[in-house]
Amino acid sequence: MSRKQWVVVVAALIALGACAQLGFDRWQDYLTVQEQLRQQAQPHSTNVQLQARINATAQLADFQTLASTQMAGRGPGQSGHQQAIAYLQQRLAALGLSPLQATSDAKQLFLAPYSTGTNLLAKIDGTDNAATAIVLTAHYDHLGVVGDKTYLGADDNASGVAAVLAIADYVKKQPLRHTLIVALVDEEERGLLGTRALFTAQQLVNTAAKPLHLAFNINLDMLSRNTDNQLFVVGSWAYPEFADILTTVQQTTPIHLIQGNDRPWYIAGRTPDWRDDSDHGVFAEQGIANWYFGVPDHADYHQPTDSADKADRDFYIAATEAVLSALRELDQRL
Fold it and tell me: Is CATH 2.40.50.140 the right assignment for the domain spanning 44-333?
């Protein structure tokens, strides 16, 4: 083949590659639009009367304390992190929750890069099927002090932790059929290390009774910001057998629960895929069904400006009530 012929062949291959890329991009654009339309088409109503079951005053107090300048962003290895651990231990005890491990308090330590991580694990025994557990998770660590800036981590994730405490308070008074494990986990920001330790160090083994069967995980991460009244629930695509529960819950909340951001690129195009973006991803790796509740990213995400005063408190309380409804419906289904 002559040099001129080689040039023609190479040019043709480049042109074919460009056409293929253009076709792929257009296909991805189409899938993205279709997924956005699917999400927005999910029925909801803003005229629903909010169920008021949780102690909203206590929840907001926990939220403000965890996001305070005193706790300085709860960065692992920093003083604010230790203050958060002490505060959360006190709150779990005040709520009357039992440590998961009978021979210890709620603290479960694990090795992490540059520090020792601390998970806080407690339980509320079920009334009918105590050997089967639902695990309610939220990470309490954040970025902390970096240089001369303090990353307070109000939405990410003081909001999730305070919501877990509020739900646990309610469940302690109105127990579920199944055991509820409350897992306030550490080192999420550096790679879901605390949740991985739940399994690698067997921290979820209940030494007070027979081994627990872990049936489901509900993970809360960023609940307090109102973006078009939307709260995403990740998990319906992987676990469609539970999707109708969320449809039922939608009828009880004024918040738009969007079942989405949980589909791969070849189905949803460039739509975000949050299936492993937080601690629920580790449960998925272990073959445990899960939901992740969270709001879309916002301008203050992982910024020093993620402060408690930016929260939409009515939305935040309504979001927590919606999670509680989903938990109670799930408890009846399992």
Answer: no
User: Structure pTM?
Assistant: 0.92
Please tell me the distance from the alpha carbon of residue 84 to that of residue 117, in angstroms, as a whole number.
Answer: 13
Domain residue limits, the chain = 1-41, 44-333
Closest by Cα among 27, 29, 9, 8 to 19:
27
- pLDDT per residue, tens digit, the chain (334 aa), is 566 555 444 444 555 555 556 566 776 776 677 877 788 778 887 788 888 999 999 999 999 999 999 999 999 999 999 999 999 999 999 999 999 987 678 889 998 888 899 999 999 999 998 889 999 999 999 999 999 999 999 999 999 999 999 999 999 999 999 999 999 999 999 999 999 999 988 888 755 556 789 999 999 999 999 989 999 999 999 999 999 999 999 999 999 999 999 998 888 888 999 999 999 999 999 999 999 999 999 999 999 999 999 999 999 999 999 999 999 999 999 9
> Angle between the 313-333 and 243-250 helix axes, to the nearest 10 degrees?
130
Phi first, then psi: give them for residue 21, nearest 5 degrees: -65, -40
One-letter-per-residue 3-state SS of 246-305: HHHHHCCCCCEEEECCCCCHHHHCCCCCCCCCCCHHHHHHCCCCEEEEECCCCCCCCCCC
